[in-house]
Amino acid sequence: MAIDTGVLGFGGGERALYASNPWASRGRLFPEASSLTRSEFQRDRDRIVHTTAFRRLKHKTQVFISPDGDHYRTRLTHTIEVAQVARALARALKLDEDLAEGVALVHDFGHTPFGHTGEDALDELMKPYGGFDHNAQSLRIVTKLERRYAEFDGLNLTWETLEGLVKHNGPLMMADGSEGSHGPLPQPIRDYCLLHDLELSSYASLEAQVAAISDDIAYNTHDIDDGLRSGLLTFDMLEEVPFLAGLMQEVRTKYPNLDPTRFAYEVTRRQITHMVEDVIAVSQKNLRELAPESAQDVRTAGRVISTFSNEMAETDKQIKRVLFSRIYRHPEIMRIRAGASQIVVDLFHRYMDDPALMKGHYWVKQMNGVPEAARARHVADYLAGMTDTYATRVHAELFDQTPDLR
After folding, report:
1. Labelling 224: which of 157, 239, 400, 403 has CA 20 to 30 A away?
2. Residues 42-93: pLDDT tens digits?
3. 195: number of Cβ within 10 Å
4. Domain containing residue 366
5. Looking at the predicted structure, is the pLDDT value of residue 11 above 60?
6. From CA 296, how far away is CA 292, in angstroms rounded?
7. Taking 80 as the threshold, does the pLDDT of residue 178 lie above it?
8. For the chain, what is the domain count?
9. Burial letters for 286-307: b for 16+ Cβ neighbours within 10 Å, e otherwise?
10. Alpha helices of 93-205 — where are they, by DSSP H?
11. Among residues 308, 329, 350, which one ends one of the domains?
């Protein structure tokens, strides 16, 4: 699908009618005076970057737990890559770049230590108390758990940024109030929306949509790069995906004697370019068909606007199948995942038995006599905030044996 280069945005200053307007934001839960030097979405982005939660991402797993090398992605480097792609898409589509970047930067705040392994373990432990969802935890962090400001808990982000955080993957409820396609509504999101309605049955802004598709583009590409570096993935395995096979042939033809490191980078940079250009072309086509004249028109369009073409969506599925079978389910990765899961399970039960062990947690002094469900939620908050390194170290302090994650 071809891109209409005549309507691309390159300067970063011009916004389309369908873009979110920071000067017409729906505001914040706690009203604040406007800034003389920054838009509302710039302020949100800056607040996100200065959080404790953002800094913790540098020691949280993306794919490889406790990697032996320093060059594998972490949650932080993944987040920065997502933000870069989101900003590029937003600029091309004449959206508000600061809002797109802010949603990208905050989207993984709620992830536990040890990646999806930690989340799966914590969700199972929290099933009797409403479960655990990293997206809902991200909302909980920015509306409650970050304790920096004198006048409110959380970051007091704008409605648009919170909406993008919660709904970047689509509506969470049907128009009649029933459950959406993503399953039961996490309790933290339900509770917050009683105070500040994020309109869960509508789609999110186009800025949030480009942040969501940027996440797919970034982790598909860097999981291939990290997989090749680890040795779990080979170029021969990538031949299983026709799209990647074509890119590799293109690089071999142009650079027949390229060393493996440069070869891998030439392939992955082409992968990102093709995926980004595909999203731009599809988004332009959908915008021409729908002709939205406001950000609200995007929300009520009834479908995602910024997404892959059918052909690229199939390629995306093929890449994920290779990554799942060759990396995520590799026996060595599964061994490490089992150990990481055990660390989370052990710590959860120990903290439930003795909340005073949660050193530094703001709610510890109020734990005595609270209902079990409330205690469990605060234990989940504490565990989810841990980095891989901190969780492993604390487990070694509290237990005689700690799983080897190397």
Report:
1. 403
2. 999 999 999 999 999 999 887 776 555 667 888 999 999 999 999 999 999 9
3. 8
4. 332-398
5. no
6. 8
7. no
8. 2
9. bbeebebeebeebbebeebbbb
10. 97-106, 115-126, 134-140, 159-167, 187-195
11. 329
The position carrying tokens 């302090």 is 397
Assess whether 219 and 321 both reside in one domain: yes
Rounded Cα gap, residues 319 and 242, in angstroms: 10
Question: Any idea how long the chain is?
Answer: 406
Scan for tokens 């505001």, then name that residue. 27
Whether 234 and 295 map to the same domain: the answer is yes
Specify if 65 maps to a domain: no
Question: For 104-118, how does the pLDDT look when each residue is reduced to its tens digit (9 = 90+)?
Answer: 999 999 999 998 899
Residue 388: inside a domain: yes
Q: Which pLDDT value is given to residue 61?
A: 80
Name which of 64-78, 195-209, 251-265, 368-382 the model is least confident about: 64-78
Direct distance between the N- and C-terminal alpha carbons of the chain, in angstroms, rounded to an integer:
45
Q: Assign 183 a pLDDT band (cuts: 50, 70, 90).
A: confident
The torsion region of residue 243 among left (phi > 0), alpha (psi -120 to 50) and beta comes to alpha
Supply the pLDDT for residue 13: 65
* 94 φψ region: left (φ > 0), alpha (ψ -120 to 50), beta (else): left
* Structure tokens given for 58: 């540098």
Residue 81 lies in a domain: no
Separation of alpha carbons 78 and 49, rounded Å: 14
Which two tokens mark 64?
A: 């490889």
